[in-house]
Automatic annotation (TrEMBL):
Catalyzes the ATP-dependent amidation of deamido-NAD to form NAD. Uses L-glutamine as a nitrogen source. This is Glutamine-dependent NAD(+) synthetase. Keywords: ATP-binding, Ligase, NAD, Nucleotide-binding. L-glutamine binds at residues 190, 196. GO terms for molecular function: ATP binding; glutaminase activity; NAD+ synthase (glutamine-hydrolyzing) activity; NAD+ synthase activity. CDD domains: GAT_Gln-NAD-synth (cd07570), NAD_synthase (cd00553). ATP binds at residue 482. Its EC number is 6.3.5.1. One of its GO terms (cellular component) is cytoplasm. InterPro entries: C-N_Hydrolase, C-N_Hydrolase_sf, Gln-dep_NAD_synthase, NAD/GMP_synthase, NAD_synthase, Rossmann-like_a/b/a_fold. Deamido-NAD(+) binds at residues 458, 487, 616. Belongs to the NAD synthetase family. In the C-terminal section; belongs to the NAD synthetase family. Pathway: Cofactor biosynthesis; NAD(+) biosynthesis; NAD(+) from deamido-NAD(+) (L-Gln route): step 1/1.
Amino acid sequence: MQLVQVAAVALNQTPLDWAGNVKNIKTAISTARDQGASLISLPELCITGYGCEDAFFSPDVQQRALHALQELLPLTEGIVVSVGLPLFYGGALYNCACLISNQRILGFVAKNHLAGDGIHYEPRWFKAWNSPHVSQVEIDGQSYPLGNMVFDCGGIRIGFEICEDAWAARRPGRDLSQAAVDLILNPSASHFAFGKQDIRRRLVLESSRAYGVSYIYSNLLGNEAGRIIYDGATLIASNGTLLAEGPRLSFKAVVLTTAVIDIDLTRMNRARLMSFQPDQLGDTENRVVMPFQFPKIEPQPKLKTTAAWEASQNVKSEEFARAVALGLFDYLRKSRSQGFVVSLSGGADSSAVATLVWLLVKLGVAELGLHSFLSKLSHIPDLAQAVDLPARLLTCVYQATRNSSDTTEQAAAKLAEAIGADYLKLDVDAIVLNYVELVSDSLGRELNWNTDDIALQNIQARVRAPGVWMIANLRNALLLATSNRSEAAVGYTTMDGDTCGGLSPISGIDKAFLRQWLLWMEKSGPVETGNLPILKLVNQQVPTAELRPEASHQTDETDLMPYELLDWIERAAIRDKQGPVDLYRLARAQFPDYQPAQLSAWVIRFFQLWSRNQWKRERYAPSFHLDDENLDPKTWCRFPILSGSYQRELEELRVFIDEESLN
C-alpha cells in the first residue's frame, strides 16, 4: 500500500502584486509541508495573478514571473509543487503549470484549451498548446521541457489539466489516463457563479472515475482584480469517491485542503475499467522522470466535511451573502479605500447594499477573529482603536426631498442604527427647487409634471449625487452605487443619480431575487451573523423610486411591469436570445393569467427599453459577476449602443397579436 498525502490550495492573489503573491505561495508550501503533504497543487497563474489583462504582454511581467519561480525553488526540497505562470516561447505566450521539486524545475505544461467565452478573454493573450511533441524552453541558460507531459516522480505518474482543459470535449484527461497517470492536477481560476459548485463536484468525481485516477482541483479565492469573485473551491477525489472538499468563500489568504491517496488502490481500480486502454509503446518523449522518494505515511481517517450552509435549502441566498461580502472586503483592502458610503433611501436596493457591508464585517470577524480582520485593513488609520467597527467602515446618507416619505426615512434610520453604521441626513429639496427654477427661468416657462415628468424625476436623483460624493471624498471612502440588474435591463435608473459610485455591487442581481434575499435576511440570515429583523420596515414597502408627488402613488411595477415578469422576459430575451414573437408565445404559456394585450405590451416595452438604454449599461461602475445572466457589457453581455431597436421584429409581433385576436 503506497500512500501519498496531497494538498489542493486556494489562494487570494492580486494581479502584479509580486510580494503579496509570492508570500501567499510560500505560506501555502510551508503550511502544507507542516501538515505532512508531499504533493502540493497551487492555482492557475498564481504567481502573476489571473487578471493581469494586457499586462501579460509585458516582457517585464514575464521576467518577473520567472524570477518569482526561481525564488520558490529553495522551498521545494523533499516535496513536489505545481505553480502557475505565463511563459513566453517561440514568439507566443502560454498559460502554464510548472512542476518543481527538490529545488529544480521539472518542466512546463501549457494549457490546451483557452477560456474565451463569457468573462474570460484568454485567447487575447495566450496561445493554445496543440502540439503532441515536447519542446525545450531556455531560461537563464538552462533548458526545460515544455508540452503535454507526464511527470514520473519516484514511480508515481502525474499529469495536468489546466482549468478549461477539463471542460472541453477533447480534454487531455483521456490521453493522461491511457498513459496510466496516477494523479491529475487541475490548477484552476474558476470564477464563482450560483450553483457552480455542484457542477465542479460532478466534474471532479466523474473525471476521477472515468479515467481511473486521483484528481486534485485547486482554485483562486476572493475578489482578485475587481469584477470576478473566486470562491476558492478545492476538491480531491479518487476513483469516483470524494476524499476532501475545502471551504468556499473564505476571508483567509491561503486555504489548504489535504487528503491521503492510496496509489495502489487507484491503480487497481483503473485496471478494472473495461474502457482503460494503456499506452503500450512504453516511455516516450512526453515523459519526465525524476528520482523522488515519497515519505511513508500511515492511513488516516477520511474527514470529508463541508460547511453546513452548503446543504442549506437557501444555498443561493447564502452564496450571495458570502460572495458579495467577500468581494466587497477584498475591494476595500486592495483599493486601499478607508470605508464605504451608501446613499440609503430606505428602499430595497440601498438597504441590501448596506446589509452586505454589515455582513462583510460580521462574516470577516467571525472567521478571522478581530485581530486578523483588522490587520488585513491596516491601511485604514485608527481602525484598531475604533469603538464601533461598522460605524468606522460604513456611512449611510439619507437624502430627503418633498417626495420622500416618513416610511422610507424611518426604514433608513432604523436599519443604519441596527447595523451600527454612521447615519447622516441631508435635506436636498431646496437644491432641487433651485435647479427647477433656474431651468424654468432660462426656458421662459414653468416646468410641470404633465409635460416634464422624467426631467423632474431625474433632477431629484441627480441632486443627491454631489453631496454623497463629497462625503465619500472627505472620508477617503468608496461610494457604492445601488442600482440592480432589473433596472439596468430597461434603463430604469438615473445616470449620475442612483448609478453614481465607484463600485456597483448589486447590478449583477435581479430585483425579484434581491427582495427574496432581504426577506431571508429579515427572518434567518447566515448562521454566523443571524438575521436582521429591522429589515421588515424595508420588506413591507411596495418598491418605489419616490420621485413623483405622493398623490401619484408611484411604484416601480406601475412604471414598468411586475418584477417577476420583467426578470423572466430579460432571461428569455437576453440570456436565451428569444425574438419578440417566440418570447411572447413562451410568456403566454408561462403567465396565463395576463391578458394577451397587456402581456404583448409589456414584451414590446421591454425590447424598446432594452435597446435604447445600452449606453447606460456601458456607464455602470464595475460590478461583480454572479451568474450567466449578467448584463455587464465589459465582461459578459455585448449589445450595440445604436441599433435597429427591434422595430421590424416588434411590428411582426403586433401583426401576430392582431391575427391571434381574430381566431
